[in-house]
Amino acid sequence: MLRRLYDWTMAKAAHRHAAWWLFAFAFMEASFFPVPPHPLLGLMCLSDPKRAIRFAAVATIGSVLGGLLGYAIGHYAYQAFGEALLQALGLAESFPKAACYLREYGAEIIIVKGATPIPFKLITITAGFIGMSLPVFIGASLISRSISFMIVGVLFRLFGAPIKRFIDKYLGLVTIGFVVLVIAGFLAVTLIGHGDKQGTDMCDINPAAVRA
Fold first, then answer.
1. Using CA atoms, how far apart are residues 171 and 198, in angstroms rounded to an integer?
2. Quick one: which of 32, 22, 91, 92 has its CA closest to 67?
3. Whether residue 70 has pLDDT greater than 90
4. Do 120 and 110 touch, CB atoms closer than 8 A?
5. What is the dihedral of CA 66, 62, 145, 150, to 10 degrees?
6. Which of 60, 77, 91, 192 is most buried, with most CB under 10 Å away?
7. Structure confidence by residue, pLDDT tens digits, 157-167
8. Whether this model's pTM surpasses 0.85
């Protein structure tokens, strides 16, 4: 069953309209959609390694444009439905701290956090809410999203064919290894989070100051 699911997913990732789906996922994820586009990007790059960088560029453009929608939600419609959106996505508690960091560090936070698994939609909506400079926001978003997606694209472009052969041959072992890595990642984030409490900064101590 696992093999059939893998083959079916790879076929969809290689579909002639897959790039449009990737663009749509990246656009929506940057503003309101909970599922990141990275898994689809990875599968598309795996299906056709020679086009990996092109796929990464599609994801980058879609995400930056979607980030503008997120910015607009935070800037013009936060009270109307932006706040409810963050609550529905489980990001409401992180909003005050995110806003505090954006006020303190600006583009640096977008570049650093936007290239990590932290939900990009939280950053885009928050940036709009605090009225961050739009040119600065666009530039920082372009850099951060390029880092996030181009790493995937370049790696698959360079090593995609050998990786694909390995996965085709050892799919079961790869699946088990992926699950182990995900579990280990969650454990690491939890431990790091507890450790960070020993050295909090202003945004950890008083994130509510964002509304001042």
1. 42
2. 32
3. yes
4. no
5. 170
6. 60
7. 877 666 655 55
8. no
